[in-house]
Sequence to fold (228 residues):
Amino acid sequence: AQTVTQSQPEMSVQEAETVTLSCTYDTSESDYYLFWYKQPPSRQMILVIRQEAYKQQNATENRFSVNFQKAAKSFSLKISDSQLGDAAMYFCATKTSYDKVIFGPGTSLSVIP
Amino acid sequence: DTGVSQDPRHKITKRGQNVTFRCDPISEHNRLYWYRQTLGQGPEFLTYFQNEAQLEKSRLLSDRFSAERPKGSFSTLEIQRTEQGDSAMYLCASSPNPRLADTQYFGPGTRLTVL
Fold:
């Protein structure tokens, strides 16, 4: 069975600063994907970034990047130049082939002006 | 592409009543997923469809829950004899195909309150 752990229920960051959200996971599969989803208050969940487990290079999407440590089963999200619109719940998730997505409990990120 | 839509957005019902939610996925998306999300938690998988076939059901989905996707397009989730513990946000997501890498696109959810 797959599990996802996010040890930081809440985080805060000053506007324009950098913040890192932590995620660890457990899976017995060799092929899998990892995701970070963002859920703003009362708004839809959207994909922020995804990482293929077979790729060593860390994924980046503009101000968002990940630090993927496969051996440690760690998948952290770094948000650079934080903006007020980044305030949201962030969910780490994993998925194996032809299977469902398993989400972590989430980290609530506040951005301080 | 109008995105995943869900109806209704909010539903308040009394304990013991039946409720039905609808999800319209993005056109031509083969896969459709249902999740339940309680306050402060991540979404929990309930069930998913590949076209009209229901491929997996979570043990969270008791006998009171049933989901259908009759023509491989929209889906309905019915909860019979609702209980207060059913109060949650019910999320629907769709994806274009079952490849490993496919991204799920989420709808806005239906918030159910059972009084």
